[in-house]
């Protein structure tokens, strides 16, 4: 049996980071930036007011105080977006709004709250030092500075700064397109009636959702019966839109294992036993002229999900140009744990804080590979190493938050 680490290493050595392409900003959310982005102008591009109020020469309001206001004539009104402006001469004020350009001559903004709000003349009851409530040109970013580096995942704030420096498009690593196929003669679509021996297909929903949670595009291609030829036809039809394929079921030792039967003879997909629990039977390789990576995951619902977290998600991250590491935290066990010898096990658990603030992890009831309800109640996987079979309460463990 090969180790979890060997299997992951082979996967990461096989999958390639997707080629960058130019995308409109509206389509780049969730992609990874593939270029350094500079601002072509300084930001803000001009000195502007940080407050609604009056642009003045600070010298003119130096003596303003609640008991003895300074009154100045208001010679102009500037709103955000205004272009041609009057200069503020000595003894004058200009009414100004937040974001409006500072008129020449003025060196301070008096907030409207410190005045009587006058439109033709304004009585000012507090002094404002030079520079007060002015946002200087280039204060956010100087001209030519890099605002985002290649490799940065694009979220809402990153999209914002791309637009803020005037970009309409960006060079990005796209979201991988991942097709999910379930196999199994017993599977029927949720929403339809169950016949004898049938169950509702849940894996294709779980895995497609997990793909989307991992930042890729998931396409649920539905259920394929236990027939290798039909499976190959379906796979062929889906390959045109796939950067990766995930299948579930049909990889173990049974008499009807369509995925293994169909892919085994191609010679580009290997089926192996990985020393882990759950998720021991695993297939991985490439298919089609474009050598699309395919993950043939075991059919048991918990096994396919755990396999996704351990193998598929890091691969999708590599394809997106992101570090493939699996994030883990340290916690102590709330109860004693058992684990099979020679296998790394991933126990479904809930993570919480103990009285001292440290993380505590409690396994959920129902650790069978078919026990999907227990998985749904968990928010973490406790990693128990291959050489450990018993852990006492209070032992320090590595945990993968879900
Ligand atoms: N003789 C042996 N039998 C099994 C072994 C073994 O080593 N020797 N390994 C066991 C382990 S471990 C696993 S995991 C499973 C993997 O089996 P397959 O990948 O071939 O999956 P299936 O047989 O198709 O299904 C297993 C189980 O999961 C249910 N299933 C399948 N697909 C779905 C789906 N889309 N939604 C919900 N549930 C699904 C299926 O009905 C079966 O109950 O093999 C063990 N056997
Ligand atoms: O490895 Mo299977 O995934 O134990 O149930």
Describe this structure in words.
The chain is an alpha/beta fold and 402 residues long. Helices cover 18% and strands 31% of the residues. The strands form 8 sheets. It has a 6-stranded mixed β-sheet, with helices on both faces. A 5-stranded mixed β-sheet has the order 8-5-7-6-9, with no helix packed on it. Helix 1 (4-14) crosses helix 6 (301-319) and helix 3 (203-213) packs parallel to helix 6. The model has no long low-confidence stretch (mean pLDDT 95). The structure holds ligand LQZAQKY5 and molybdate ion (MOO). Residues 182, 184, 186-187, 199, 201-204, 248-254, 257, 278, 280-281, 298-301, 303, 369-370 line the site of ligand LQZAQKY5.
Summary of the model, kept short:
Helix content is about 20%, strand content about 30%. It contains seven helices and 28 strands.
Main sheet characteristics: 6 strands, mixed
What ligands does this structure carry? ligand LQZAQKY5, molybdate ion
What is the CATH third-level topology name of the largest domain?
A: Molybdenum Cofactor Biosythetic Enzyme, Chain A
CATH architectural arrangement of the largest domain: 3-Layer(aba) Sandwich
Fraction in beta strands: 25-35%
* Alpha carbon gyration radius: 31 Å
* CATH C-level name of the largest domain: Alpha Beta
Structural class: alpha/beta
Q: Strand order, main sheet: write it out.
A: 16-13-17-21-20-18
Give a count of the beta strands, DSSP E runs of length 2 or more.
Answer: 28
Mean pLDDT: 95
Oligomer: single chain
N→C terminal distance: 27 Å
- The coarse silhouette is elongated
């Amino acid at each position: 049996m090969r180790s979890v680490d060997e299997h992951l290493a082979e996967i990461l050595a096989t999958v390639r980071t997707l080629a960058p392409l130019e995308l409109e900003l509206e389509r780049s959310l969730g992609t990874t930036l593939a270029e350094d982005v500079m601002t072509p102008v300084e930001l803000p591009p001009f000195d502007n007011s940080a407050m609604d109020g009056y642009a003045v020469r600070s010298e003119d309001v130096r003596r303003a105080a609640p008991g003895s206001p300074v009154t100045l004539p208001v010679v102009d009104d500037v709103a955000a977006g205004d272009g041609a402006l009057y200069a503020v001469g000595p003894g004058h004020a200009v009414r100004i709004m937040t974001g409006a350009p500072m008129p020449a001559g003025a060196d301070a903004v008096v907030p409207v709250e410190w005045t009587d709000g006058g439109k033709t003349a304004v009585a000012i009851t507090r002094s404002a030092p030079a520079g007060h409530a002015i946002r200087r040109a280039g204060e956010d970013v100087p001209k030519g500075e890099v605002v985002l580096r290649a490799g940065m995942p694009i979220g809402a704030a990153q999209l914002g700064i791309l637009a803020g420096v005037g970009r309409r498009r960006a060079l990005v690593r796209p979201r991988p397109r991942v097709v999910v196929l379930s196999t199994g003669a017993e599977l029927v679509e949720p929403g339809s009636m169950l016949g004898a021996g049938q169950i509702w297909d849940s894996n294709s929903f779980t895995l497609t959702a997990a793909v989307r949670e991992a930042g890729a595009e998931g396409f649920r291609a539905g259920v394929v019966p236990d027939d290798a030829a039909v499976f190959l036809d379906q796979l062929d039809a889906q390959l045109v839109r796939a950067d990766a394929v995930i299948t579930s079921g049909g990889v173990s030792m049974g008499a009807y294992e369509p995925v293994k039967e169909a892919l085994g003879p191609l010679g580009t997909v290997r089926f192996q036993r990985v020393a882990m629990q759950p998720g021991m039977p695993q297939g991985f390789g490439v298919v089609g002229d474009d050598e699309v990576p395919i993950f043939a995951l075991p059919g048991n619902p918990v096994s396919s999900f755990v396999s996704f977290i351990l193998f598929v998600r890091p691969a999708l991250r590599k394809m997106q140009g992101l570090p493939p590491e699996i994030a883990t935290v340290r916690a102590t066990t709330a109860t004693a744990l058992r684990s099979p010898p020679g296998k790394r096990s991933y126990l479904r658990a809930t993570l919480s804080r103990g009285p001292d603030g440290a993380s505590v992890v409690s396994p959920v009831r129902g650790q069978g590979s078919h026990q999907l309800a227990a998985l749904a109640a968990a928010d973490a996987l406790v990693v128990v190493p291959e050489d450990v079979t018993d852990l006492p309460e209070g032992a320090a463990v590595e945990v993968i938050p879900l």
